[in-house]
Design a protein that fits this description.
InterPro entries: WH-like_DNA-bd_sf, WH_DNA-bd_sf. It holds the Pfam family HTH_20. It comes from Natrinema halophilum. This is Helix-turn-helix transcriptional regulator. This protein is of the alpha+beta class. It has a single domain, classed as Arc Repressor Mutant, subunit A, CATH 1.10.10. The chain is about 45% helix and about 25% strand.
């Protein structure tokens, strides 16, 4: 479901608002400016790993976070790596239903930020 919604850019504003309204979602998005595993996000934000996984799933379904691939953890397990898909979001409440616009992250910005983190 989340991949087809993301590819077609048909994410419902209610899904986005719901994901953003969940506790810790904003913190996860802020921390996911560079690729991070759920474990790293959980430790950075100091939240339980189960909660972190639930928020990640909501954010991915809303198209606000994406899985960039997999890497080996310190324990030798393959883990998903996540990064936010936007830098800004604007919510408009002036119509009958809320709408939103977002400033998507470019691949060039992702590569530049990755190089700065190394």
């Amino acid at each position: 479901m989340s991949r087809s919604r993301l590819e077609n850019n048909e994410v419902d504003s209610a899904v986005v608002l719901s994901a953003l309204g969940s506790k810790y979602s904003a913190e996860i998005l802020c921390a996911a400016g560079t690729p991070k595993s759920a474990q790293a996000l959980s430790e950075t934000i100091e939240i339980p790993i189960a909660t972190c996984y639930r928020r990640i799933e909501e954010l991915v379904d809303a198209g606000l976070l994406t899985c960039e691939g997999r890497q080996l953890s310190d324990e030798g397990r393959r883990t998903n790596i996540y990064r936010r898909t936007l830098d800004e979001i604007e919510i408009d409440f002036s119509d009958d239903a809320p709408g939103f616009s977002r400033k998507r992250r470019t691949e060039a910005k992702n590569r530049l930020q990755d190089q700065l983190e190394e």
